[in-house]
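ok posting inputs for the FE2/S2 (inorganic) cluster job
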Amino acid sequence: MERRDFVTNLSVALALACTGGLAACSKSDSGDPDPNPGGGGGALLTANLGSELQNTGDYKIGGGVILIRIAAGNTVSSFAALSSTCTHQGCTVARFNSSTNLIECNAPCGHGSRYTTSGAVNTGPATAALAKRTITISGSTLTVT
Ligand code: FES
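and the output
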């Protein structure tokens, strides 16, 4: 093999290896703290509004999302959907506290960060907001993507 051919083959192999590495980094799995950062693609979480999230302050965590009823009615603006992955160190937020109206990242994993229902940091150590997710409602089915 000529030196030029060897270098060309090596470059192609490295390019393929790098592409594979990037693809592996972008895949979603259960350990991915932010499985749908672009907001596109399939449903992250669904809720049956006929039986779930009926009262203001009710919430549901799953699929990397925290979904909170923030007002009466079954319109998109009646809910907040945010990434459930704390921006401090990646723990899943623990709950929504309807008394304080804040999302809490508590022990055993979290360190006390608090977020508003718009995702903004209320209390650190987190410094970045929770990412917003998209809500659609069809009939009694709410879908977060
Ligand atoms: S991981 Fe949430 S406060 Fe540290």
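notes: The longest strand covers residues 65-69. The radius of gyration is 20 Å.
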